[in-house]
Design goal:
Helix content is 48%, strand content 14%. It is an alpha+beta fold and 429 residues long. The strands form three sheets. Strands 1, 2, 3, 6, 9, 10 and 11 form a seven-stranded mixed beta sheet that branches. A two-stranded antiparallel ribbon has the order 4-5.
Length: 429
């Protein structure tokens, strides 16, 4: 009897210890990202595949659209409740990690995360004070895409120079009507485009990285905003006032875009397919040339990591989090699931796999746009401070003051420079 009881106790203890051991090995992660339904679905599929390979690691998905995502994440990071794995933006580094300690240092999890698949130059862009704050998923650049059908109706070839771009506006107006424009740009697009022009002309960066101050003189800022007004006055693109009359939906969902009245854009190569997919058939977007001033040494490209995957500094499971990132970016199953949803990947393993599978095609607008950008001179790096949300919003307010007749170009330039310097001073503390 005693032996029976003893055996029962031993057996029960073994079950209990096994249960405790399993519980100790069971890991729960949280992962957040933003995007549209297409991105949500492919990421959820990838996470399913990850769980099959790592059944003891459970991943809770926290996904949203773009609106409100940054403010939500800001609150989480401030409270130490951020997700273990996060899709992040390159321009958030100065906001969350000025000293490199805002995110987990990925250099410390090299055993789980194969960094050899990534170009060290690209990893430098996401490194702060020697700490790798994120893995760039892809790189992206703004280039020109044009609606083939509408430009054909206007009887114009795609512009190769800035003068040809400026001249196209009046041709569109005369041949097609007031509602037709060669381009449509939201305020952040206009900011990047005018920066490209001024960079080509003066060959200096907008922001001095050492001092965290604007490099432009008052006269150059006036010229900056004069170029914006010139494009609007020349009917190259709608004013912010006219654009606002169509509401606050995504630009690629607005009727003038879908119908081809807005016949081009200056857009990230990594996101261009959703703009092309929304056009009314048989219209399609084609890559245009990139205008260059005769003596330009740099194209003034806005070249940056499209997005990153980062690990939260508060995570209790850095190794498992690194395994998840490695799976999404370097494994066959993860790469197959994500495809080109987040742009042409930087991972060498992913590029080879997607090329062999025929997913990466040379004539794909996203791929051809990146190829063009890489061929253009682009030694001058863009400061993440230039892409600070407050700077971008300030520019939006500034061009509205011009388009609504509230300020002159000179007054707008003075206002932008003064307020922008204040934002940079606060952001760099």
């Amino acid at each position: 009897m005693k032996k029976t009881i003893l055996h029962t106790l031993v057996a029960s203890s073994l079950v209990l210890f096994a249960s405790q051991a399993f519980a100790a090995d069971d890991v729960n992660l949280r992962m957040s990202w933003w995007g549209g339904n297409g991105r949500h679905q492919v990421t959820l599929k990838a996470l399913e595949e990850f769980h099959k390979q790592y059944p003891n690691i459970n991943v809770k998905s926290e996904y949203t659209g773009w609106d409100g995502h940054l403010s939500r994440l800001t609150t989480q990071i401030a409270g130490g409740t951020e997700p273990d794995v996060m899709q992040t933006n390159w321009n958030w580094l100065p906001i969350f990690s000025k000293d490199g300690k805002g995110f987990y240092d990925l250099n410390t999890v090299k055993g789980e995360l194969d960094l050899s698949q990534f170009n060290p130059i690209e990893l430098e862009q996401t490194t702060v004070d020697g700490k790798l704050n994120g893995i760039p998923i892809s790189v992206t650049a703004r280039v020109f895409y044009f609606n083939e059908e509408t430009w054909k109706k206007a009887g114009l070839a795609y512009p190769k120079t800035w003068d040809e771009l400026l001249a196209a506006g009046q041709v569109f107006k005369e041949k097609l009507g007031d509602q037709y424009y060669p381009l449509v740009l939201e305020h952040q697009d206009s900011l990047a485009l005018v920066r490209s022009y001024i960079t080509q002309k003066y060959n200096i960066p907008v922001i001095d990285e050492a001092t965290k101050k604007f490099n432009y003189s008052p006269e150059q800022w006036v010229e900056f905003f004069e170029m914006y007004k010139k494009m609007v006055d020349s009917h190259v693109m709608p004013s912010s006032k006219y654009y606002a009359s169509f509401g606050k939906s995504n630009m690629y969902e607005m009727k003038p875009w879908v119908n081809g009245e807005w016949a081009g854009t200056y857009m990230w190569n990594s996101t261009i397919n959703k703009y092309s997919d929304n056009l009314k058939a048989p219209a399609k977007l084609e890559l245009g040339d990139y205008p260059m001033l005769p003596d330009a040494k740099d194209a003034g490209l806005f070249f940056k990591p499209a997005q990153m995957f980062s690990i939260g500094k508060s995570t209790k499971h850095p190794k498992e989090s690194a395994l998840l990132i490695n799976f999404l970016l370097n494994s066959k199953e993860g790469v197959d699931a994500l495809g080109l949803e987040r742009g042409v990947p930087l991972s060498q393993a992913a590029v080879k796999q997607l090329t062999d599978n025929g997913v990466i095609k040379a004539d794909d607008p996203a791929v051809s746009g990146l190829t063009l950008a890489l061929k253009l001179p682009h030694e001058m790096k863009t400061s993440p401070y230039f892409d600070d949300p407050q700077i971008v919003a300030l520019f939006g307010d500034a061009i509205q003051s011009i388009d609504y007749g509230q300020k002159s170009v000179k007054e707008t330039a003075e206002y932008f420079q003064k307020q922008g310097d204040r934002i940079l001073k606060r952001a760099s503390r």
